[in-house]
Amino acid sequence: MAQRLCYTRFYYMTIKFRPNKKEYILFNLRAFIGSTGTRLVLGALFLFIFLTGIDFTKGTIILLLTLFMSALLAVFLALITLLISATFTILQMLVRIKSNKTLFDQDITYSFEKERIISQDANSKSEWSWNAIKKVKQTNQAFFLHLSSIRPVMIFIPKRAFTSRGELDEFVTLLKEKGLL
Under CATH, to which class is 3-18+108-177 assigned? Predict the structure, then answer.
């Protein structure tokens, strides 16, 4: 249930929702894909492909077949690394879902004010300034407010948390005015 008071250049909007398993999995997979570790593995892969194609003793390019085989090996190793990492991420999510019986029984409340965002559930309260938001990604189901470009720290806001299309549009307007969309 969303509540809002809107004044000129001052926003106050509160949304409340209870996350579900699908959203929890979507959020964690999005965090995994955008994680620094994943980016580092892919960066190392491209660096490895480039460096294996150069013969430093002669300063010339190695035969195309050798380059292709090196690149194929690098791609294979990177994919195995990502597959193992993704498997552990999924297993960790499943363990959390099984072990934490109250994970989906608690409402999460977000309040969007002029200078800050406040998140609160039954166990904790967090505050962030709008300047802490580095980028916003919007999907058909949710908004992902990225708090850092280094670690995959995000605020997840499902679009179903808004009680009307007007409230959703108002939130999009707020993000645009903050220069995030």
Answer: mainly beta
